Amino acid sequence: MNKTVSFSVGILAGGKSSRMGQNKALMEFNNDTMIGRISKQFKGFGEVLVSASQRGLYEAEGIKVVYDENDSIGPVEGIRQVLMNADTEYVFVCAADMPFVNREIAEYIAEFISSDYDCYVVTDGEKIHPLCAIYSKRVLPVIEELIREKKFRLLELLNRVRTKYISLEHTSFDKKVVRNVNTKDEFLALSLPVVFTVSGFHNSGKTGLIEKLINEFIAEGRTVGVIKHDGHDHIRVAEGTDTARARQAGAVCTAVFSDTGYVFEAQGSAGPKRLIELMKAAEAPPDIIILEGFKNSAYPKIEVVRKEVCPESVADTKSLICIATDCISPDETSCPVYGLDDVRGIFSCLKKYFGI
């Protein structure tokens, strides 16, 4: 394994995005553009280049942009451009529609670099991913040859150079690291389930706002799950029931189900992360998961600030989606501010933040 080889990063912005109906690279996901999200993954890492088919689209992202010379021949031209313009011998290449690609996978691939191969490509046990790969500049003559022959498939390139295939099957990487997004349904699925908190002091109106937001989500066809922390430890099985008797007998957990629903209860402590995992693992997991409280957590949050309870925001601004308040002016904070009853405004802010 070789951990000393430096490499550049090339992001292929793609072309027409015909199946998506709009430019995938500039679509917003988790409050950032897809291409911006990827470039930030590699910020401070080294040289980052974007391969584009048109001028003027990505310069605002603050990244070096290179442009196609051969139109409509696919990613082989993008790889050609980033290799020709990179300052290093090796370039990690990914696509702008891969929202979960990260520097860890690039560094992992780089560990395999040696003089024996020209290209290092990830496989996930089912597919080969030539757009999650490291290419050497040594493949440039072969790319030029393929273009002259009008053979533009990347598998043709991999077959003509010395290619090392790197399986993710026995690593800790999730397959989503190589997932790309081609349709609007696939894009929406990336954001689900959405997880956020509604925080604030006791009696500030958190529960009422959550109820109204649930109605807004349901009206748009979304399903919602809610997680609440009980600081008074009032979680008790009704005395005398069969489940209570089973608990008293020593059962560590109980479950009751019917044709329309079920309840699972267990002894011990489970934080929000574990409860979110359980909701995600349900037979019909919710699209939206709302946590009530957790004002000191890192989850994205709506903070409810009521004058008669506590007139100041106490949440970390880095995690704030917006503030619902009757006493804070928009001039007092850089965070979006809405009235306590402006449910539509808060709901619109949520949708924009999560890109749903």
- What's the main sheet like? 7 strands, mixed
Parts with pLDDT < 50 across at least 5 consecutive residues: none
Number of E-type strands: 15
Rg on CA atoms, Å: 25 Å
Percentage of helical residues? 25-40%
What is the number of independent domains? 2
**CATH class bucket of the largest domain:** Alpha Beta
Q: What structural class do you assign from the helix and strand content?
A: alpha/beta
The span between the termini is 42 Å
Helix run count:
10
Relevant CATH superfamily of the largest domain: Spore Coat Polysaccharide Biosynthesis Protein SpsA, Chain A
Order of helices and strands: EHEEHEHEEHHEHEHEHEEHEEEEH
Tell the overall outline.
globular
How would you state the average pLDDT, rounded? 86
Strand order of the largest sheet: 3-2-1-4-6-5-7
CATH architecture of the largest domain: Alpha-Beta Complex
Share in β-strands: 15-25%
Could you tell me the CATH topology label of the largest domain.
Spore Coat Polysaccharide Biosynthesis Protein SpsA, Chain A
Q: In terms of topology, how is this protein built?
A:
Blueprint: E1 8-12, H1 34-41, E2 48-52, E3 64-67, H2 75-85, E4 90-95, H3 103-110, E5 119-123, E6 128-136, H4 140-148, H5 154-160, E7 163-167, H6 184-190, E8 194-199, H7 206-219, E9 224-228, H8 242-248, E10 253-257, E11 262-266, H9 272-280, E12 288-292, E13 301-305, E14 320-325, E15 337-339, H10 343-354
Parallel strand pairs: 1-2, 1-4, 2-3, 5-7, 8-12, 8-13, 9-12, 13-14, 14-15
Antiparallel strand pairs: 4-6, 5-6, 10-11
Helix pairs in contact: 2-4, 7-10
